[in-house]
Specification:
Length: 165
Amino acid sequence: MKKVLALSLLTLFSFTLFAQPAKHMGGPRHKDDYANVEKLVSNLTSSQKKRIESITDKAKKDVNKLRSELESLRGQIGELHAKEGDQSSALFPLYDREGQLMSQISKEMYKCRVQIDEVLNPEQIKEMRESLEVERQKHLKNKPTQNSGTKKSKIDSQKGSVKKD
């Protein structure tokens, strides 16, 4: 009975872990940071705006296609985790593909940044980097920690009870 319970919990944990869509795959902290260059950089010319829009539209299309494939793949991985027995022969190639997709997404995001940099002048590039860093710091500041808002529990080893700090 304990084995079945342990296996069920492991399967549930694995499914929830691997079935999650990708959130941060390198590049900007938020998927639309480069799409909002106008908000990050002042004094863009209309020509720059058009070129950046073209670059980001293509990048969004490419990355969204990869993210959709990644989400589907993670669903397949989750389904295999839910099955009993050794699924390694089916899972391992999927893990390899997952890594390839994550790498491709990171590369696409980087290429987008490089292409945008080619459109901007040095002062605008500096302004964009500083704006992205401010946004990153806000994100880190607002990101909840593992134990934020909850009291830590300690198990009293002698009594087997739970104490709240």
